[in-house]
Amino acid sequence: xxxxxxxxxxxxxxxxxxxxxxxxxxxxxxxxxxxxxxxxxxxxxxxxxxxxxxxxxxxxxxxxxxxxxxxxxxxxxxxxxxxx
Amino acid sequence: xxxxxxxxxxxxxxxxxxxxxxxxxxxxxxxxxxxxxxxxxxxxxxxxxxxxxxxxxxxxxxxxxxxxxxxxxxxxxxxxxxxxxxxxx
Lengths: 84, 89
Hints:
The structure holds two protein chains of two kinds. Chain A is mostly helical.
């Protein structure tokens, strides 16, 4: 089984591409949880359950973080286009 | 079993896919464990002593449960956000 045979296999290539995408998405979830756990639970692990307030905070945190990323991306693209 | 150059048979392909799948799962589990340990050690063991006290152990247990729940909430929220973005386009 050579690497060449792996590279020529379209079904395998498709599978690997899908897995890479899945991996990226999961990595993003890890990162978001990392950030939002600290923000919403104030690094307090000692809770017997998550309240509805905690849940809402986590959901908002995800959306606001992604809004933030979008804003920064667009602004950065603008700067590049303006040649600064 | 001889291999025609450039061709994988069905079982070989499946074997590779399974291996890749397993590797990714292991990698993901390791990353999760690392995050859990970091977070919960920080939250529950401010001053490391000679052993983990029972209250520290309880805290660590709860912390890891809460973190896993938070992970699921974040995962769902992220999935829904992606879906909304796709519908917008």
